[in-house]
Amino acid sequence: QYGRYYLAEVLRLQGRHAEAIRWYEIFLANQDWYVPALSGYGLSLMEVGNMERAEEVFKRCALLDPEHAAHKGHLAWALMDQGRNDEAEIIFKQSLAQDPQDIMTSYNYAVLLARKANFTKAEILYRQILRQEPRHLYALVNLGATLRSLGRIEEARVMLRRALEVNPHDKVAGDLLLSL
To answer: Which pairs count as long-range contacts for 96-99, CB under 8 Å and 24+ apart, including other chains?
Structure first.
């Protein structure tokens, strides 16, 4: 039975989400309480754009495993991708109150804050991420964009150059740097 779960995990990690979803569903038909499979299933659902179903799955994960803050972070991410930003913000805050070091949740919450033009708080979160993971490409790029929005152009250039050191081919970082 667990072989189906492991196959689904491998397929998800290979980016073969439609196939992974099929195998997660087969596994979960008899093991719908197994949180690691539910979580992987939810992540694959998000990758194929099925945010409504992912929301349901991550609510179940959070109910079955309330001590694992990342489930709430994933739920908030699914809500954010559905445009339900106020609900997402509440859940992001709950998740980060439970685990302030969760990089993925911090990153997605910073993205939401930047979307809401709350650049000062977004900057704080991006910098917190970079203290934990100095080469986090997306945090570097988004911090650069956030600093540009705050009018701090030289600091933005520094962050974007750091992003290009991590990945010299990053188009977003390159384009943003050229625009400054």
So the answer is: 96/69, 98/69, 98/72, 99/69, 99/70
* pTM summary value: 0.87
Q: Answer for the pair 40, 12: CB distance below 8 angstroms, yes or no.
A: yes
Q: What is the pLDDT of residues 35-89, one digit of tens each?
A: 999 999 999 999 999 999 999 999 999 999 999 999 999 999 999 999 999 999 9
Q: Is 107 exposed, middle or buried (0-12, 13-18, 19+ CB in 10 A)?
A: buried
Which ranges of the chain would DSSP assign to H, the alpha helix?
2-13, 17-28, 35-47, 51-64, 69-81, 85-98, 103-115, 119-132, 137-149, 153-166, 171-179
| Inter-helix orientation angle 2-13/35-47, to 10° | 30
Q: Terminus-to-terminus CA distance in the chain, angstroms?
A: 55
> What is the tens place of the pLDDT at every residue in 143-177?
999 999 999 999 999 999 999 999 999 999 999 99
HSE (side-chain half, CA atoms, 13 Å) at 74: 27
